[in-house]
Amino acid sequence: MQDLKEKEKLNNVIPFIPEGNFYFAKGIEAFQRRKFDVAVKWMKKAVEVAPEEPLYHCQLSIVYTEIGAYHAANQLLTKVLQSTGDQYADCYYLLANNYAHLGLLNDAKKYAESYLKYDPDGDFHEEATSLLEMLDIDDVEEDDWEMEVEDELLIYQETVFHHMERMEWDKVLPVLEEMIVLFPEHKMIMHDYTQAIFFSGDQEKAITIEQDTLDEDPNELGSHINLALFYFKCGNEEYRHHIQALLNVYSIHEQQKLKIAATLARTECYQEAYKRFTALSKSALKGHPSYYRWYSIAAYYINLKKKAKALWDEGCARHPMLAKENHPCNM
After folding, report:
1. What is the per-residue pLDDT across 194-207, written as a single tens digit (0 to 9) for each?
2. DSSP string spanning 112-139?
3. Taking the model in full, what pTM does it have?
């Protein structure tokens, strides 16, 4: 009789299956206690359980912003806007804030203006207005002399692009050295410079510069890209740490997407590289020899040899200099 009662009790027990609100509340609690790694885990669970709930995506993006993972935050916010239209106008301000942190001021201005357009009396009204005022000051201070500097920078960038795409390190190095003196505020110049000196033979100096940069800013994408490549070429397993960092980044800018995809191919992460290449905009990147070079190599080594050959042939037709390179399709 006693056993029967115990069985009845067990049959009446309702299993506890957490819903999104449970994980969300846990994530908020961890966030308020500034335990951001724990907050990310809980928020990810909330998103997994209720992927249709925009609030969970937005809050996860805020946690990412707090830890400096601006690209991951922007990806979430963009998805929310795509799925809800302008219903979650706060996303516009959060995007503006992230782009300001990334130094992409035109994008920051565009999203701040969108926020004020769709929610002029919203919670972030003062912050968005202040951000626009700061950006407007930058615009006012940009005079004719600065425009001339920008034109000069563009000419240098085109020269560097030409040589970097062809891996002509001896030709690009003196150009980059000039640019470092003339445009010290442009970070990407230094990343191109470290690649040039690494492949010119000064590997230790290149690694030291990038490691010092990463120590100052652990989220510096250019440093993760270069260190993944440098350590791989040196046979140092530390490259895997930087590859993992790249696998967590989904940029919205085609140039950055290409650099990540090419780096994955150059470090023999062919499957992941191929996935990234298939997501790129061919029309935006067909002027880049590296697009065809590394996309075709990634395809070749995951046994898509017909696709690899078609890509390589198209690349050689568009960029005849590629035909002079050694390529697995020619072997």
Report:
1. 999 999 999 999 99
2. HHHHHHH-TTSTTHHHHHHHHHHHHHHH
3. 0.57
Can you give the residue range of the structural domain that contains 315?
250-331
The values of phi and psi at residue 182, to 5°, are -80, -35
Instruction: Provide the CATH number for the domain around residue 301.
Output: 1.25.40.10
Q: Which of 53, 19, 51, 56 is nearest to 39 (CA)?
A: 56
| Residue pLDDT, tens place only, 73-91 | 888 888 888 888 778 888 8
Burial classification of residue 233, based on how many CB atoms lie within 10 Å of its CB (0-12 exposed, 13-18 middle, 19 or more buried): middle
Structure tokens at 214: 């990463």
Instruction: Examine residue 69 and state whether it is found in any structural domain, yes or no.
Output: yes
pLDDT in tens, 204-254: 999 999 999 999 888 889 999 999 999 999 999 999 999 999 998 877 778
What does the alpha-carbon distance between residue 80 and residue 111 come to, in Å, rounded to a whole number? Answer: 14
Query: Which one of 83, 114, 141 terminates a domain?
Result: 141
What are the structure tokens assigned to 124, written together?
A: 């972030």
CA distance to 130, 153, 303, 327, per residue, from 308 (Å): 50, 36, 9, 10
